[in-house]
Each structure stands twice: as C-alpha cells, then as structure tokens.
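Schema walkthrough. Field components (list of strings):
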Amino acid sequence: GQQLNQSPQSMFIQEGEDVSMNCTSSSIFNTWLWYKQDPGEGPVLLIALYKAGELTSNGRLTAQFGITRKDSFLNISASIPSDVGIYFCAGATYNAGNNRKLIWGLGTSLAVNP
Amino acid sequence: EAGVAQSPRYKIIEKRQSVAFWCNPISGHATLYWYQQILGQGPKLLIQFQNNGVVDDSQLPKDRFSAERLKGVDSTLKIQPAKLEDSAVYLCASSFRRGTNEKLFFGSGTQLSVL
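Field assembly_structure (string):
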C-alpha cells in the first residue's frame, strides 16, 4: 500500500539539541497528523494540522502543514531523553461519504544521548 | 478514562495454525480499526468498523483474515491459517469524531510471531 516519504529514517542526537523531521507526498492531503510510538505501545497523537500553512505547537513540539498540502514538518526543541521513540507522520483524505483514510509514513527513529 | 484494551500482548504460533486477537475500544467510540504494523514500517489499515458495520476492508487478506464486531463494541481479528509474513504487531484503535476532527486512540497491540 501507499506510504509517505518520511525523513530522516533515524536520528541520534545529544540532549538539548533541536530536531527536525519531515514528510512529503505526491498526493494532496486534507489533514496532517504527527504521532509518537514508544516501544511496545501504540502510536499517540502529538499534533493535528487541518489547514494549509497552519503552524501548531504542543509544548516543545511545533508542526506545520505545507502550503502545497503535500508536505509537513515536525520540530522538537531542546530534546530530552523521554523524546526517544519513533515518530510517524500520517496524511488524511476524505471520501465522498466523509470517511477518513490515513496514509502513514515509515517513521523516524529518534535516539537522545543524555 | 480506560484506554483501548487488547489481548493477548504476545502470541507465538507455527505457520498454518490459527490465531485470534481481541479488542475492547474506549466506551462510546463508534469507529474501530485493526492495523497491521510490520517491523520498521508504519501501521497498515486492515479493516475499519463503524458500529458493527464494515466501512473499509479493502486491504484485508480475506482468504485468511476475518474480523467481526458484534454488538458494535468488542472486536476480534482472526488469522486462519497463519503464514510467516503475518509476523507483526496487530494494533486496534478506536475513535470519535467532531465534525472533521477525528482522534485515534491506539491499544498497546498484540505482537504475533509466526514460526
């Protein structure tokens, strides 16, 4: 099935550094979502973006919905050890019945060195 | 508020055996999803229920996979017979919607190993 282009695939950073990851697609999406998945758990929603150009923050996290509606980025400022995990982007479209369909990225694995 | 409950957490079976997973969604959530997540990949939708009706099962391998959601609450996903490539984490999620805003809540998943 279709999956989004998410980069980088993995990152290893020092505590306190800022992190940036992005997601691109050849298709247009109505909604962009960013999730974090800890080992042995399901993904948890971090940020949802609903309009092109929208910039939204959640604590140290900031995400933007690209103007072209084909991309999105997630920034994490001043990383801490508990930021470790896999970050997934997901793009959403709606069909004629207003049913939402999500397309997921392959994930960015983040490791933070204390 | 209780989250999405899944069981078992782990299952090891041999190929050609059968296996079943159970999910109890968050109370009041009409929509329930089953996802398959292979190591190193994002979740892949297998089936979506709205109450007890199937909304999307286009990616469900129907020759071996089946799912039901009787009474529009709990759901079971079955694989019969299992293949080696079915080794993955099976995630259940439920959601509610306000307008176009829909938030998914995932369970912890069942990790399946097929030997």
